[in-house]
Amino acid sequence: MTSDRAKAYRRVVRTVREMGPAKLWPSEQACIREAADTLLFCRDLEGADARTAFAAATTLTDRLIDAGRWTSSRARALLDDIWACGPGAVLLEAVAA
């Protein structure tokens, strides 16, 4: 785990806490936390767990946008932070080098 990944995780936790139960139901909070946890602790994106967890968070944010509960920019920021919890950015940098 890197400090950048830990910072991204803190941003996700802060977002969930700030939204609270008024904006996110407990099952929605759990989905977001699970995605962030799974990505934070994975070493690579080879396994299905990380991809499945991120896909679930993406589906959730799409539903939140469609229901008018969240803006697309807020959802995108959350998804960016969830993605940053994982090794994806580091892997992309390695491929580019």
Query: How many structurally independent domains?
Result: 1
The number of distinct helices, counting runs of at least 4 residues, comes to 5
| Overall geometry | globular
Binned strand content = under 5%
Unreliably modeled segments:
91-97
Biggest β-sheet, characterized? none
Order of helices and strands: HHHHH
Radius of gyration (Å): 13 Å
Mean pLDDT: 89
Structural class: mainly alpha
Distance between the termini: 20 Å
Helix content: over 70%
What features would you describe in this structure?
Helix 2 runs parallel beside helix 4 (72-84). The model is unreliable at 91-97 (pLDDT under 50). The longest helix is centred in the first third of the chain and has 21 residues, at 3-23. The protein is globular. The chain has one domain. With 97 residues, the protein is mainly α. It has helices spanning 3-23, 26-41, 48-66, 72-84, 88-96. It has five helices and no strands.
In short:
It is built from five helices and no strands. The protein has helices at residues 3-23, 26-41, 48-66, 72-84, 88-96.
What tags apply to this protein structure?
97 residues, mainly alpha, disordered C terminus
Give the SSE map.
Blueprint: H1 3-23, H2 26-41, H3 48-66, H4 72-84, H5 88-96
